[in-house]
Design brief:
With 76 residues, the chain is mainly α. It has four helices and two strands.
């Protein structure tokens, strides 16, 4: 797990969109998606419910989101 992946994850949850998060992070959407798929594989959980209406965290994803926010705030 990389610190950048935590930032990416938080941005996706807050935007409810991989596309908008990628724009905010100045990266391509495929690169962001690949990074999140890698994180999901590493954690062995699904972080998002994905649909044409957006991306929303799963129950486990929401718990991880709060942990990530705490970690990122502590690092600032």
């Amino acid at each position: 797990m990389k610190l950048d992946q935590l930032r990416y994850f938080v941005q996706i949850v807050e935007c409810h969109s991989f596309n908008q998060a990628a724009k905010n992070l100045y990266m391509t959407q495929p690169a962001l998606t690949a990074s999140m798929q890698s994180l999901e594989e590493e954690l062995q959980i699904t972080l998002f419910h994905r649909s044409h209406k957006g991306a929303y965290p799963t129950k486990q994803g929401l718990q991880i989101y709060h942990d990530c926010k705490d970690i990122l705030m502590a690092l600032e």
